Amino acid sequence: METGKRLHLPLALLALIVSSACGEKEGAHTTVITHVAAPPRQVLKIVSRPTPRFSELLLPDSAADIRKPVLVLNLAKGSRFRLGEDVPISFLVWNAKLKGDGGEFRIRYIVDDDDMQWRDTAEAFWLSGWLPGKHTIRVELIGPDGWPYKNGNANIVTREITIEP
Fold this sequence. Notes:
Blueprint: H1 2-21, E1 45-47, E2 70-73, E3 80-82, E4 87-89, E5 91-94, E6 106-111, E7 117-119, E8 125-128, E9 133-142, E10 156-164
Parallel strand pairs: 3-10
Antiparallel strand pairs: 1-8, 2-5, 4-8, 6-7, 6-9, 9-10
């Protein structure tokens, strides 16, 4: 019985301390605010440079009809680049005129499901400002109706690249 009384005393003291800390006084509680910085955001910029030269010309999808408008992206699947290195985006458009050349077609490109960007000429360009890791580049030939022009799997081209630190 005496052991039970000895155990009750520390528990009663603990309850008294806890209840006094939880008063209804203004400012009696404590709020901890932790600031977590947002992850770095990739901001890509177009860099003007001479047209990149490739050792081989990539061909369109074999299911595409080459008599219809066709987009050919000259960026090999799984390309690797070093951090700080600009990535060349070079493409050819066959059997279609882009808006910049007086036609009705446009090129739309999307990097990592970010905002879509538009090109109205078939000039190659370079993108700088990459963060390390894997990235997806999708380039599409957009027809006069505002939708990707259907021709096999040729006019929506997706490539995954890796930027190495």
